[in-house]
Write a sequence for this structure.
């Protein structure tokens, strides 16, 4: 079993490049979150930043929330990555099954592959994250932005990124191999396996109940947290888990309702033959489409959430700070702006991971539709039309992910800042969110760029498919 895993890594190491990259980015992300929390704590004390009692409580909540987000993003995208590897290796797995290897042995070997990939990527990411954090902290101290306060960036908590990386990739590998290895060896070599892996028939009753309970229960907790936040900053301790739980419900049910959103997005790309085929492809494999879209939704939701929360915070505390000492106000505002900048950089990692997930999803689409693309080429489809089809599918996925993430981010960001500061007697309770125009423009521009970039590699693979060789596949 172990020997099989190392043999697959030795001969097929290239297929794990994207998995290592995701684990690396996730580890860098988690490491910098941990380092950021440490830095903000030290600087909030040394720089005497905002002398309110709930600042430390907010940092505690944000620490847990950020780490949860890093784990969440890594698990979803890594699972999708291993799904691609399993799809491309299905015939090899079938041959091993025919030669006598049991499903349990093969799944265990694949899980070991995931553990090794996660370990390598996480260790490299941890080192890179520490180096970047040290360089950035030194530069900010030299520039006078931060107070020159001694800080220890090496903490026991830094073991967490490695543990999370290993566990998430191991679990993703095991989950990704479940459906492929759950069929008979002969059936695994057949063409019908593709649809079994990718399609979804209907939501099981237990899962439907879980989705409803998680989503509705999370919304109730979120609203309750906001209500408590009108009286006490501890409302964020209720609102944050509520938001997370509702989002988990959203993710679990995404496969079953995101099809409607993809239909609407399909209309936005026009009625040409490549666009119509792209829409049909996205709807044919809802599980695959939802996984790739959810990765993007997470990234956009995070960016929007922290932007809306930060801008709303600044808008509400600005008038309060107007009557304070000028030097203190300037320091507080600079620190807040810097914190938002750090958050923007960190959240950028989740968008990069989401982009990798989208590329992987489209690559899986090309693998699964190899015969179909070959048939289209044989019937007269040009290389340009194939590229247009892949690009249209990418646009549809990014459109759904961008708009959904924008709406969720506004709701969660507004709820979070209400729960955190509405109880302050200077604020005076309920207030409307501050939504800067630039975030909408940036998300729209980023979605367009992501759609173009993420479709480039799968499109190149698609146009290289020879019609004769593709149709010859049994």
């Amino acid at each position: 079993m172990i020997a099989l895993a190392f043999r697959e890594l030795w001969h097929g190491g290239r297929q794990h490049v994207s998995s290592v990259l995701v684990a690396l980015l996730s580890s860098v992300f988690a490491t910098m979150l941990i380092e950021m929390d440490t830095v903000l704590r030290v600087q909030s004390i040394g720089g005497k930043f905002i002398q309110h009692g709930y600042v430390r409580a907010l940092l505690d909540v944000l620490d847990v929330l950020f780490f949860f987000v890093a784990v969440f993003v890594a698990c979803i995208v890594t699972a999708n990555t291993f799904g691609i590897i399993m799809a491309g290796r299905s015939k090899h797995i079938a041959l091993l099954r025919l030669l006598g290897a049991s499903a349990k042995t093969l799944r265990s070997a694949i899980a070991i592959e995931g553990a090794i990939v996660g370990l390598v990527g996480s260790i490299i990411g941890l080192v890179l994250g520490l180096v970047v954090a040290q360089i950035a902290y030194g530069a900010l101290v030299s520039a006078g932005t931060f107070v020159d306060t001694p800080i220890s960036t090496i903490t026991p908590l830094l073991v967490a990124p490695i543990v999370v990386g290993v566990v998430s990739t191991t679990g993703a590998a095991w989950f990704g191999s479940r459906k492929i290895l759950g069929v008979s060896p002969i059936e695994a070599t057949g063409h019908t396996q593709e649809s079994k892996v990718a399609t979804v028939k209907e939501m099981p009753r237990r899962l439907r109940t879980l989705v409803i309970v998680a989503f509705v229960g999370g919304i109730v907790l979120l609203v309750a947290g906001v209500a408590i936040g009108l009286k006490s900053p501890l409302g964020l301790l209720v609102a944050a888990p509520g938001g997370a739980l509702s989002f988990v419900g959203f993710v679990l049910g995404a496969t079953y309702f995101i099809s409607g959103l993809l239909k609407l997005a399909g209309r936005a790309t026009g009625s040409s033959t490549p666009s119509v085929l792209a829409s049909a492809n996205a709807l044919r494999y809802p599980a695959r489409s939802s996984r790739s879209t959810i990765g993007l939704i997470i990234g956009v939701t995070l960016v929007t959430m922290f932007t809306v929360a930060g801008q709303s915070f600044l808008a509400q505390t600005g008038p309060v700070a107007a009557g304070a000492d000028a030097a203190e106000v300037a320091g507080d505002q600079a620190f807040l702006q810097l914190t938002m900048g750090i958050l923007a950089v960190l959240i950028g990692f989740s968008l990069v991971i989401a982009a990798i997930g989208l590329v992987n999803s489209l690559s899986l689409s090309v693998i699964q539709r190899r015969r179909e693309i070959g048939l289209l080429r044989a019937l007269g489809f040009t290389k340009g039309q194939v590229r247009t089809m892949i690009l249209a599918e990418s646009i549809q996925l990014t459109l759904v992910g961008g708009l959904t993430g924008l709406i969720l981010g506004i709701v969660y960001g507004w709820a979070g800042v209400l729960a955190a500061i509405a109880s302050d007697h200077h604020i005076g309770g309920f207030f409307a969110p501050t939504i800067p125009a630039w975030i909408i423009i940036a998300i729209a521009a980023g979605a367009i760029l992501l759609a173009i970039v993420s479709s480039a590699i799968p499109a190149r693979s698609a146009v290289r498919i020879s019609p004769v060789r593709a149709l010859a596949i049994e």
Q: What stands out?
A: DSSP finds 19 helices and no strands in the chain. The two ends are 29 Å apart (CA to CA). The first helix runs from residue 2 to 11.
